[in-house]
Specification:
This protein is of the alpha/beta class. The protein folds into two domains: 162 residues, Leucine-rich Repeat Variant (Alpha Horseshoe); 275 residues, Vaccinia Virus protein VP39 (Rossmann fold, 3-Layer(aba) Sandwich), CATH 3.40.50.150. It is built from 20 helices and eleven strands. Strands 8-6-7-3-2-9-10-1-11 form a nine-stranded mixed beta sheet. A two-stranded antiparallel sheet has the order 4-5. α18 links the parallel β9 and β10. The mean pLDDT is 89.
């Protein structure tokens, strides 16, 4: 019976029988098992039992043959491994062949790896880059790698940018990563967010979570055209990008919107806001991370299926829209998330850990919230998850379209600070009235400030 113990014993006591075991195995499954469990190979291992398997019809057998041949790091086998890297039918086998050459860390292999920089498979190119970075002190290697910043593939560009064109000393703000300006903490500003953002210092905000006004769906969000609406949102989110700390998150809650028909002789129009906005956000420096689906009970949404239920005619099917999108973006950086996490002291890290139940999928079942003053208020549970999952205690959480202030209230209850902007004076006054009644911990008059645009501008001047 073929077992790991048998393979280990033969490797230590009877190599000849192990060779026979490999040569005699015709079943791909058995060959894969043997090759996977060879482990460390002695220097005198007879590779003639391995090299024929480089041409085996099974992809996994070829992959493991390349891997085991690479373990021995014998220069005479490099040309054959290089041929597999260039011409094998399976992309994973090719990438493993490149990795095997790179892991040998031999200067003699630089010429082989350099040739692979021009491969059509960007993943092969990235593996070749990894192998060559061992020799990046060599000026010729450096120049060849730096030239790849103009490569058409974004994976290749990212690898080169990280090594040769990024600032590895942390963000360029004047404050340490966990710190945000004191004058912005627990502050609500009434005014056009685009004007407000102009005076906000660079890299001040840790997390932005917002639901923009929907295109011409409410009286408070009327725009000349759909493109004008998208241009407005991008003007805001470009400003948010500047004030966001390196590698931190923007989370946008939107959904497609229907503009009703103007008469029975016209059709209604459905606008795919999250999808059109997504392309623009990615192009402007936000890295797409996740798409979370907010699932609402069918009883809480407008009935669109009623007509179809009556006639059941094809082409007339219009399902009830029970979902919204919570799109997660990260400010592009060459640094990994670990860099952001290590910026905090151990006490903050421990106190910020998510405790209790947490969502394991990207479908969040949350009931919507209704409010007499605001017609599209955030559910507190949605805010709670976003703030807990994407910020640390003490962080500054921003909502550029604050509405009734749910993001701020939840952020404060979770030990974060908030910065809210709201153009509509009725919503601003509503938040202010709650402060006067002292009915909410968010609106504690001793800590929360309410500024007009001019007052905010004056405060930023004083801060500077």
């Amino acid at each position: 019976m073929l077992t790991k113990e048998l393979i280990r014993e033969l490797k230590q006591t009877n190599l000849s029988e192990l060779y026979s075991l490999i040569r005699e195995r015709q079943n791909s499954k058995d060959l894969v098992f043997v090759l996977e469990n060879l482990g460390f190979l002695p220097k005198d291992f007879d590779v003639s039992v391995i090299t024929p398997l480089l041409y085996h019809p099974n992809n996994t057998v070829r992959l493991l043959a390349v891997k085991n041949l690479g373990k021995l790091a014998r220069p005479e086998h490099i040309p054959e491994i290089f041929e597999k890297a260039k011409h094998d039918d399976d992309s994973i086998v090719r990438r493993e062949a490149v990795s095997s050459i790179g892991r040998m860390r031999s200067k003699e292999n630089i010429s082989f790896l350099t040739k692979l920089l021009y491969d059509q498979d960007p993943k092969v190119v990235v593996q070749a880059i990894r192998g060559l970075l061992v020799f990046k002190e060599d000026e010729e290697v450096r120049e060849r790698l730096r030239f790849l910043i103009a490569h058409p593939n974004e994976m290749v560009q990212s690898a080169i940018r990280r090594e040769f064109f990024s600032d590895k000393n942390g963000d360029n703000s004047n404050q340490s990563h966990p710190i945000s300006p004191d004058f912005m903490k627990n502050l609500v500003v009434c005014g056009d967010v685009r004007e407000i953002l102009k005076t906000v210092p660079d890299q001040s905000v840790h997390l932005t979570f917002t639901s923009p006004p929907y295109y011409n769906a409410r009286d408070y969000s009327l725009y000349e055209s759909y493109n004008t609406y998208l241009d407005f949102l991008m003007e805001v989110f470009n400003g948010v990008h500047r004030v966001t700390k390196e590698g931190r998150f923007l989370i946008v809650n939107t959904s497609p919107i229907i503009i009703p028909r103007i008469s029975r002789s016209h059709s209604s129009k459905r606008y795919p806001i999250p999808f059109d906005l997504h392309a623009r956000l990615v192009q402007s420096g936000w890295e797409f991370i996740d798409d979370i689906v907010w699932l609402k009970p069918e009883t809480t949404v407008k009935n669109r299926i009623g007509g179809f239920m009556q006639h059941k005619k094809p082409l007339g099917y219009k399902p009830n829209s029970v979902t919204e999108y919570v799109m997660v973006y990260r400010k592009q950086t060459e640094k990994l998330l670990d860099w952001n996490m290590r910026s905090y002291d151990e006490k903050t890290i421990q106190e910020s850990r998510v405790s209790g139940n947490y969502e394991t999928t990207n479908v969040w079942k949350i009931d919507p919230t209704f409010d007499k003053v605001h017609s599209a208020v955030f559910p507190a549970e949605l805010c709670r998850r976003v703030v807990q999952y994407y910020s640390y205690k003490g962080d500054l959480v921003f909502d550029p379209f604050a509405g009734s202030g749910t993001v701020g209230r939840v952020a404060k209850s979770l030990g974060r600070c908030f910065f809210l902007t709201e153009k509509d004076e009725s919503y601003f006054e509503y938040m202010k009235s709650k402060a006067q009644k002292n009915s909410s911990p968010m609106f504690d008059e001793k800590q929360t400030k309410f500024f007009s645009l001019n007052e905010f501008i004056d405060s930023t001047k004083q801060e500077k």
